[in-house]
Amino acid sequence: MSQFAIKGWCPGALRPMRSGDGLVVRIRPHGGRLSRAQAAGIADIAECFGNGLMDLTNRANLQIRGVSDAGHGPLIAELAPLDLIDADPGAEALRNIVVTPFWVAGDDTASLVAELELALAARRISLPVKFGFAVDCGPARALADTSADIRIERDAAGGLIVRADGAARGCPVARSDAVKLALELAEWFIASGGATNGRGRMAAHLAVGATLPVGLTGLAVPARTLPSPRPGLLAGGALVGFALGQLKSTTLRNLAATADGLRLTPWRMLFVEGLREMPKGDGLVTQADDPILRVIACSGAPSCREALAETRALAAELAAYVPVDSRLHVSGCAKGCAHPGPAPLTLVATADGFDLIRDGSARDVPVLRGLDHGQIVADPSLLRRIG
Predict the structure, then answer these.
(1) Residues 194, 252: one domain?
(2) Domains identified in the chain, total number
(3) What is the maximum alpha-carbon separation in the chain?
(4) Contact 155, 223 (CB under 8 A)
(5) 216, 239, 269 — which closes off a domain?
(6) 81-90 long-range Cβ contacts below 8 angstroms, 24+ apart
(7) Are residues 112 and 198 in the same domain?
(8) Average pLDDT of the chain to the nearest whole number
(9) Do 354 and 319 share a structural domain?
(10) Are residues 19 and 74 in the same domain?
(11) 313, 330 in Cβ contact below 8 A?
(12) Which of 5, 16, 38, 110 has the fewest CB atoms within 10 Å, counting from its CB?
């Protein structure tokens, strides 16, 4: 079982990761969507083989927590009939695709995702573990700020484009050629040294001087970007948040019973198909101005073995004190897994207390060091003063 301790890779269902509360089993639904039966099945499995808690990730995946070593095999056996298991860990790792949750029938999103999944499984390109794709084919882009290396999206005139992350413009493409061009772009990335250049990410590869070949670039301006998503009713359903991105099995089961389907998002929310009023329940975030939306936190101690302090309770306590136009990231260690990028305010647990970083990531230089939990809670106004 020692493979679960390996660092530098993302967990999956077939290759889970060990954490402080057991194995973390990450499910990557096909097309980013769970049917009612799949969601109900996952709720049952999380109760039977895990601790009943699940996390929504910033890669639009769902993680079952607290799985024992002995329970992993039976869990996989239960997921397989739900069409939630890949042929092997390699195929699972390649299927790193984020899908806009706002797709509608006929906008090419669902069919392109299905085609891309099949093509990745067939080609087996040796991509870095964090390398991923975004399929975002609505009239406006929902995933512009979501991490991805190759994007299939619309241009300002409504045509399809394939765009390398880090390139301001994309290559116009016919629907029939979109996946083919995306895979050619991935193969160019490997052939040009991208796997070892710029930490295995497309934007970093281009930033250090890699030049896209003529056939994989273009002058098409991407479509406009949608505003930051907030909980609320939308066309076709409801966007529902969860306090710090965690939900209970009972919550998932209740949502599944009322939904036509559930679409995962990279914002730690679910788009619940078919709802005409916002749901009610434990841990649901249904108001667009809920202060809990201003904070991000990892699992923290004791759930994560790397974490040096508890994080979720602290984040919840501080949420109301975070300025409305700001955001606070509370990280249990300097890896910053819950939010790898910069945030206006970041608290990072260290052996000597929490460090406070302004306008940076968990790895950046702090402006204050060694704050303890009690000190922060007793004087939360420091967030406003520093922010």
Answers:
(1) no
(2) 3
(3) 59
(4) yes
(5) 216
(6) 82/37, 82/38, 82/41, 82/42, 83/30, 83/38, 84/13, 84/27, 84/29, 84/30, 84/38, 84/42, 85/13, 85/14, 86/12, 86/13, 86/14, 86/121, 87/121, 88/14, 89/12, 89/14, 89/15, 90/124
(7) yes
(8) 94
(9) yes
(10) yes
(11) no
(12) 5
Token output for 155? 């241009």
Residue 341 forms part of a structural domain = yes
pTM to 2 decimals? 0.93
Q: Is the pLDDT of residue 42 over 60?
A: yes
- pLDDT tens, residue by residue, 137-151: 999 999 999 999 999
Show the domain range for 32: 2-85+230-285
Residue 8 has pLDDT above 80, yes or no: no
Q: For the domain that residue 371 is a member of, what is the CATH number? A: 3.30.413.10
Provide the edge-to-edge strand list for the sheet that holds 353-360: 295-297, 328-331, 343-350, 353-360, 368-371
* Residue 183 forms part of a structural domain: yes
Q: Which residues contact 321 (CB under 8 A, 6 or more apart)?
A: 380, 381, 383, 384
- Residue 74 to residue 28: CA distance in whole angstroms: 18
Residues 92-101 pLDDT 10s: 999 999 999 9
